[in-house]
Amino acid sequence: RLSCIRNNTWLASCGVLSAGLAVLSSFGLMLFCGVPFVVTVANAPFLILGVGVDDMFIMIASWEQSLRKKDKSNVKSLLAETYAEAALSVTITTLTDVLAFFIGTWTAFPSVRSFCLYTGTAFVFCYVYTLTFFGAVLVLNHKREQGNRHWLTCMRVDVGKDRAESSCLYNACCIGSGSRQPSEPEGEHPMSIFFKKYYGPFLTNKWIKLLMVLLYGAYLGGSIYGCTQIREGIDLRNLANDDSYVIPYYDDDQKYFSTYGPRVMVVITESVDYWNESVRLGIESCVQNLE
């Protein structure tokens, strides 16, 4: 927002910080419990960040709706309404993710098991921090807005102060743009209006619903076909612990034996008279034919 009071930059930053705290907590707990840290675990923070930011947007949207419904001075009622709207969606998202990754711990690959343990635990911590830490940040940000304080310096903004009497630095950091009006709740967000008045009625049209069903059927058919065409392309070195003997084996195999392709061996299972010259010539002829 352009208003120096209604700007929620710190609120968004704390949402990202909440996901970061979840990563630190889960990694610390798993390392304390002795779970091996493998290179694939380094991808987990990106997954947690995506889910954490999504939960943050849900919480903020529910908070904005609560501000339009409830008395903005009753913080407990506002937070209760926010959790009533957002907690169900956040909980279902967390449960499905945690279930998916903890099921992955049943695999026989130790590195995949470690990755699933780290990531699943991080989702649990992300859920806890969203409902505790970020909820508290929402309340603190609301109190800052109610106190008419600047989003960056948290100094009280005097809406009636003449800019000409102050320095340029004071005007930029302590007054800002759009601060001459009191900090009143804004109207409904344009995106919400678009989905409510245009997108929703468009989708509920019977012909559009039929088209959506057909499109989903095509998508489902394409997905099933794609599943039948999947081929293994994973680097097996990433599925082993960092100190495993498999790592140098694959390194040496790649360095010394990858140029000429797979090795071919021929085994003679019958008893052969190798002292017979004609037998030896026959074996050499067989080798030449194979080459």
UniProtKB/TrEMBL annotation:
Keywords, sorted A to Z: Glycoprotein, Membrane, Transmembrane, Transmembrane helix
Recorded family membership: Belongs to the patched family.
Residue ranges of the TM segments: 12-38, 44-63, 83-109, 115-140, 207-226
Main location class: membrane
InterPro entries: Patched_domain-protein (IPR051697), PTHD_SSD (IPR003392), SSD (IPR000731)
Pfam families recorded: Patched
Entries under SUPFAM superfamilies matching the protein: Multidrug efflux transporter AcrB transmembrane domain (SSF82866)
Alphabetical list of PANTHER family matching this protein: PATCHED DOMAIN-CONTAINING PROTEIN 3 (PTHR10796:SF60), PATCHED-RELATED (PTHR10796)
Domain SSD, chain residue ranges per copy: 1-140
Originating organism: Rhabdornis inornatus
Name this protein carries in UniProt: PTHD3 protein
Superkingdom to which the source organism belongs: Eukaryota
